[in-house]
Amino acid sequence: MTEIDQASKIREIIEAYPADQRFALAAMQDMQHAFNYIPEEGLSALATYLGCAEAQLYSMATFYKALSLTPKGEHIVKICNGTACHLRGAMNLATELKRNLGIDPGQTTEDGEFSVELVNCLGSCALAPVMVVDGTYHNKLRVEQIPGIIDSYASAAKEVTAND
Amino acid sequence: MINGTENILVCCGTGCIANGALGVADAIEAELAARGLSDDVQVKVTRTGCSGECEQGPIVRFMPRDLMYYRVKDRDAKAIVDSLDGEPVKKLLFKKDGQTYEHMDDNPFYALQHKVVLRDVGIIDPLNIDEYIARGGYEGLKKALQMTPDEIITEVEKSGLRGKGGAGFPTGRKWRTAAGYDVFPKYIVCNGDEGDPGAFMDGSTMEGSPHAVIEGMIIGALAIGAEEGVLYIRDEYALARDHIQHAIDDAYAAGILGESIMGTDHKLDLSIVRGGGAFVCGESTALMASIEGRVGEPRAKYIRSVQRGLFDHPTVLNNVESLASIPTILREGGEKYAEVGTEKSKGTKVFAMVGKVKHTGLVEVPMGTTLRTLIYDIGGGIIDDRPFKAIQTGGPSGGCIPEELLDLPVDFDTLVEYGAMMGSGGMIVMDDRSCMVEVARYYVDFLCEESCGKCTPCREGLRQMRAILTDICEGRGKPGDIELLERIGRTMQDASLCALGRTAPNPVMTTIKFFRDEYEAHIDRRECPAGVCADLTQFAIDASACTGCGMCSRACPAGAISGERKEAHVIDPAKCIACGSCREACRFNAVLTERRPS
């Protein structure tokens, strides 16, 4: 996305809401959705629009888990660490992911391909432990299945690059 | 031939969808279409909300025959459609003691339930307002529109309804106080920010019966004189949000919301605010701060929200389950609702039962049902029939309850006397392979991340607790740690600003109270009796029990297990990371848990 595209997208998102503080969270969530993070330009544009301090929005962006100020990877791997998943071995999944990707939850691989997140209960406790990659659920997951799953996403990404 | 209309209900709750329910529904529809049966007159497919027994999903049910199929796959579509006018598909029926059963209530998981909040969930298409209306939906609202606010509130008071988010404050009293202030505008807010790990009651209710929540909000708004309402729904609950939004749009189109509710002069506007992913926003004042577009920090409640809440105006905040109980209370009368339950806790409660229990799922039972009934009769007992150790109720603010207290009735007040609480309805069952110290650390870790940081006892107390518990779990526990945890816990209970901080020590305090020996084993003997804490545990294979099936070596992520087929396997302690995958994989109890030499 070019800078101009990004700026116009930011404007489009912000102006969909009335200039009222109560829509600050919603506008930031929309930016998060559009860019996978909230660009600095987005924060300042929103602050100007709402007439509030940028620091106030910054405090929200760092407070709410749904918002992020740094870009996330191409593929988002979420390990559910709700209680049911935790009891059924969610942390073992995290350890195995670290062995595969070399990153802890909350980090992104250097090539920008994967982000790993440890998330709160996804409400699918019957299927614990659950890992969600780009919205696809992997249920009752066993540690030994992880390398195959990661490979399938990694190779898909590489093929796309090769075709470019 | 098929007689009359057959309705094929396919459970499309979050659990069943993750198990492939949408594919099942599509496959059945395709099969019907292929046979020229897709006409709604003969048979229709309804994608319903959560039918409860998530562990056995996807679930398909025929109505009116009440034939229930479990663990359905796409490829079963043909056999299922065949069975519309023939014999049921045996392999998909409920089985017990070698017998198969056809009806929902043949399964004790369902037979012991009493559905009020969930009466339509799993039966109707949540995206179809007409199906809700056909089952008596919006009848309660019609009645309420002919009543004065005082009469509505009196009806709710008669029902004895208490806030089902966990606090148990009488809903009628809350409404009456808010109705008493003549400051306008007033607001009604639905708390759908269900953040307790292992709990999905409210999410499933919003997904499966969104109109019940909306009807409850409209009735509440009439009672207190509000003309604007907000549903604050957790960020992770995309499906619930979609269904609520769809229901709001339909209610506007049907003249149930908006400028004139059902042709009267009453008006109400409802909108959704998407949560930002912060557990503390389930706390009422933090939730309102979040709706106002600020950081979700609680405030001290010298002035109650019913007087000055959202935008400093009188606000009633009710939980999803409380609101979804309201339509039935108005339709059938408060006294009818109060016929079930205990003296001080009326009606029913929805629980999400998860963890090491056989039938994970969503259940609704009369208040006062015992934990034993919930776990063993409804839940079917512990997975692999392992010994029960504890049940964790009330989420991170709750406590761990041991075997000897399983015959206590579950209601708002009883568990509190034992240092635990019923809470919002999450129930996590733990077996002998769950380490209670590690569980306490898990909750403290969760709360440490979620503490907003505004008040010191909660922010610093949790950090210190986490450090001590981590030390204990990793073999660095010292004498005096238990007492120190208790002191920090008491300070937090007394001095924290909001309920999150005041209840945060509960998991630690109850595990110390009921499982002190496990703490002592970690500290005094550097041993984790459950075999969970990796720094204290190693595994070995009992050669006499090992059949050499190889399940463990395939499960081992570290490649630490070797052995010939049909011969006893061996674990290399140098490679073993003590994850316990081999123990879970072994069907012959041949993996032994040992203390790791320091």
Describe the structure.
The complex is a heterodimer of chains A (164) and B (598). Chain A has two domains: 3-63, no CATH class; 75-163, Glutaredoxin, CATH 3.40.30.10. In chain A, a hairpin with a 2-residue loop joins strand 3 and strand 4. By secondary structure, chain A is an alpha+beta fold. Chain A contains seven helices and four strands. The longest helix of chain A is centred in the C-terminal third of the chain and has 18 residues, at 146-163. Chain A has helices spanning 3-15, 24-35, 40-50, 54-63, 83-87, 90-101, 146-163; strands spanning 75-80, 114-119, 131-133, 136-138. Chain A has a four-stranded mixed β-sheet with strand order 2-1-3-4, with helices on one face. Residues 160-164 of chain A have low confidence and may be disordered. With 598 residues, chain B is of the alpha/beta class. Chain B has five domains: 6-107, Glutaredoxin (3-Layer(aba) Sandwich); 129-337, NADH-ubiquinone oxidoreductase 51kDa subunit (Rossmann fold); 348-431, Ubiquitin-like (UB roll) (Roll), CATH 3.10.20.600; 436-525, de novo design (two linked rop proteins); 534-595, Alpha-Beta Plaits. Chain B is built from 22 helices and 19 strands. Chain B is globular. Chain B starts with 5 loop residues before the first strand and ends with a strand. The chains are: A alpha+beta (164), B alpha/beta (598). Chains A and B meet through helix 2, helix 4, helix 5 and helix 6 of A and helix 1, strand 11, strand 15, helix 16 and helix 22 of B.
CATH class descriptor name of the largest domain in chain A = Alpha Beta
Number of alpha- plus pi-helical segments of chain B: 22
Query: What gap, in angstroms, lies between the N and C termini of chain B?
Result: 72 Å
CA radius of gyration of chain B = 26 Å
Helical coverage of chain A, percent range: 40-55%
By CATH, the superfamily of the largest domain in chain B comes out as NADH-ubiquinone oxidoreductase 51kDa subunit
